[in-house]
Amino acid sequence: MSHLIIVPVVLPALMAAFLVLAARHDMVLQRVLSASSAVLLLACALFLYGLAAEGQPVPYLLGDWPAPFGIVLVLDRLSALMLVLTGILGVAVALFAMTGRDTGGRHFHALLQFQLMGINGAFLTGDLFNLFVFFEVLLIASYGLMLHGGGPRRLGAGLHYVIVNLVGSTLFLFAVGMIYAVTGTLNMADLAIAASQVAPGDAALLRAGGGLLLTVFAIKAALVPFHWWLRGTYSAAPAPVAALFAIMTKVGAYSIIRVFTLIFGAGAGDAAWLAAPWILPAALVTLVLGTIGLLASRTLFDLAAFSIVASMGTLLIAVGLFTPEAMTAALYYLIHSTFTGAALFMVGGIVATGRGETGDRLVAAAPFPRDQLVAGLFFLAAIAMAGMPPLSGFLGKLLILESAKDGPLMSWIWAIVLGTSLLMLVGFGRAGSVLFWKSAAVAGDGSRPVAGTGNALPLIATTTVIAGTALLALLAGPATAELDRTTQQIFDPTGYVRAVLGDEAAMQIAER
Amino acid sequence: MEFLVASAIGILTATGVYLLLRGRTFPVVVGLSFLTYGVNVFLFAMGRLTLDAPPIIDEAAASYTDPLPQALVLTAIVISFGMTALLVVLALRGYLERGSDRVALGAAEEGAET
Question: How far is A111 from chain B (nearest CA, A)?
Fold first, then answer.
């Protein structure tokens, strides 16, 4: 049992407390500690990925209480992949925020660490109730981060965000209650077995619980009809926070993948593939609505927020097919859309700071220092998001289309994915040409001294994230081979159950 | 007793949902509190309703009540209490800064009519 598995949860928790208690008044110390903690988390995540890549899921029993009675963390390929993704994004955001974007309030870095703790915990936990607890941890931190800096607009949007998520949490508790009432357990591996043994009279209750869970995860993942909160929240949040939130919607997607393949997967009897009929149509509508929003956006942040909605639609189309092929495509697209979404918000932040009063509104304004480099970054992020070659968005969409080829709704999926790609291209093209080409014609000395623009760190952070998508495209072959193995693990719960509950329980699963 | 508990959960939840759909922050905060009360009782009842039975091992006990829901409810109460406090502060800040206690975005800018 490797104790490193608990590090992604404990390290940021301790660091956050230390930042609040000891480094409160020293911004430089805060930044150094926060960034080094983020780097350590990434290193740890990479090591854990190596551990998970050896084949079998690795359980971590807290206090060595035997599962399913104690709290258990489970490291498998999927959770390790998400940890690495969080690690990379954490480092990029910490760097991005360092140049004055973290001074709007006192505790930016402490909240950032708590946020990372919640996200990592949600990816690692092997227990439904702890998933709820880690959801709360990451949400509480995100409330603080979202409101960082204050202002009426942010407060209004923040209130929405908090209320929507509190309702979501309440639904989560109802779902957990219902599932516990009929199965008597909340351990995910145990639930995988118990779901098939529910008494016929209780089967409807289990399905209702599963449906409620899907609703909760759909709120997190911004799936139609629960996507309305996203645009207001993301476009009102500070740039580095919005960039970090790119992984938050993926927590919802991860939870859907985890719960609806492990617990409500093939072996769940009456409740098998519970989510399948709902996700695909909802995801198609999400993609369409996201694209319409993108075309109607009047600020760069709105544009980025709606492109996140659209990318969640694309991602969940692949998830909703629930075939191994499509799951590989979904995971590939998940990595891609996290990087690209974050990059768009970072570019938005740089533009908004650079242009001063005009901010991120899509109107022509005087050029700002280094705007050509920023324009290049925007261009790259935009073609990645719209799905143009050569970046990973193109390959991701190609994989999804390929995997939908023989499935139901094939013509709908192809038409909508391809059509929205074209519309997204129009939206991004319009925004980019107004922001950078028309602005170039506006008279201005291009050297207005604006705080935070002189520093190269935000540009470096943005470039890193975009380099991630480029790397993903370059190494698409090995990456998909690796993700294929992850998918195999997802669709074979036996290994997961054996790791947590031992051989006997795994036999029960395998016999079905 | 089952009927009493079940209808209590139903009424609490219905009240909560109704208040939640109002457009001002105060009813929304109260509505969320009702909703969390509802869910707390619901969680408590999910381990079945047992009278006069201990939750921890006792040699004299003939039967036990399920201790796990009680632990879960504690966690849920702590979290919802903290969230309500945060929401109250947020609503107050929002009212002071935006000059309106309407929940809808953009409503604050349209002024404080009515």
Answer: 15
Q: Residue A108, Cα to own-chain centre: how many angstroms?
A: 20
Helix (H, G, I), strand (E, B) or coil at A115: helix
- What is the average per-residue pLDDT within B15-21? 94
Option in A152, A162, A181 nearest B98 (CB): A152
Interface A-B, measured as beta-carbon pairs within 8 A, has a size of 85
pLDDT score of A512: 66
Q: Which helix (H) or strand (E) holds A509?
A: helix A503-511
Partners of A73 in the beta sheet?
Answer: A60, A125
Asked if B6 reaches chain A (Cβ–Cβ under 8 Å), the answer is: no
pLDDT tens string A118-140: 999 999 999 999 999 999 999 99
- Of the listed ranges A179-188, A191-200, A434-443, B103-112, the one predicted with least confidence: B103-112
Token reading at B16 = 């909560």
Of B75, B93, B105, nearest to A133 by CB-CB distance is B75
- Dmax over CA atoms of chain A, in Å, equals 75
Render the burial of B68-94: b for 16+ CB within 10 Å, e for the rest: bbeebbebbeebbeebbebbeebbebb
Residue among A133, A155, A174 whose CB faces B97 most closely: A155
The answer, for A17 touching chain B at a CB cutoff of 8 Å, is no
Kind and range of the H or E run holding A317: helix A300-321
* B39 to chain A: closest CA residue: A174
Q: Which amino acid is at B56?
A: I
For chain A, percent helix, then strand, then coil, each to nearest 5? 75, 5, 20
**Contact A483/A168 with Cβ under 8 angstroms?**
no
Bridge partners, residue A72, by sequence: A61
Q: Which residues share a beta bridge with A361?
A: A299
* HSE-up of residue A162 (Cα within 13 Å, Cβ side): 30
DSSP H or E run through A73 = strand A72-75
Taking the CA atoms of A290, A291, A295 and A299 in sequence, report the sign of the dihedral they define: positive
> What is the rounded CA–CA span in Å between residue A231 and residue A222?
10
User: What phi and psi values does residue A223 have, to the nearest 5 degrees?
Assistant: -85, 135
- Cβ separation B69–A140 shorter than 8 A: no
CB atoms near residue B3 (< 10 Å): 7
CB contact under 8 A, B32 and A166: yes
**Cα–Cα distance measured from residue B9 to residue A349, given in angstroms and rounded to the nearest whole number:** 46
Provide the strand spans (E) within B1-114.
none
Report the 3 state secondary structure along B70-102.
Answer: HHHHHHHHHHHHHHHHHHHHHHHHHHHHHCCCE
Chain B residues near residue A156 by CB distance under 8 angstroms? 94, 98, 105, 108
- Please list every residue in chain B whose beta carbon sits closer than 8 Å to the beta carbon of residue A163: 20, 28, 32, 87, 103
Mean pLDDT (whole number) for A381-403:
92
Question: Above 90 in pLDDT, residue A276?
Answer: no
Distance from the Cα of B104 to chain A's closest Cα (Å) equals: 8
Task: Determine, for residues A180 and B68 on separate chains, whether the beta-carbon distance falls below 8 Å.
Answer: yes
Least confident of A77-91, A183-197, B46-60: B46-60
Structure tokens at B14: 């219905």
Please indicate if any CB of chain B lies within 8 Å of the CB of A70.
no
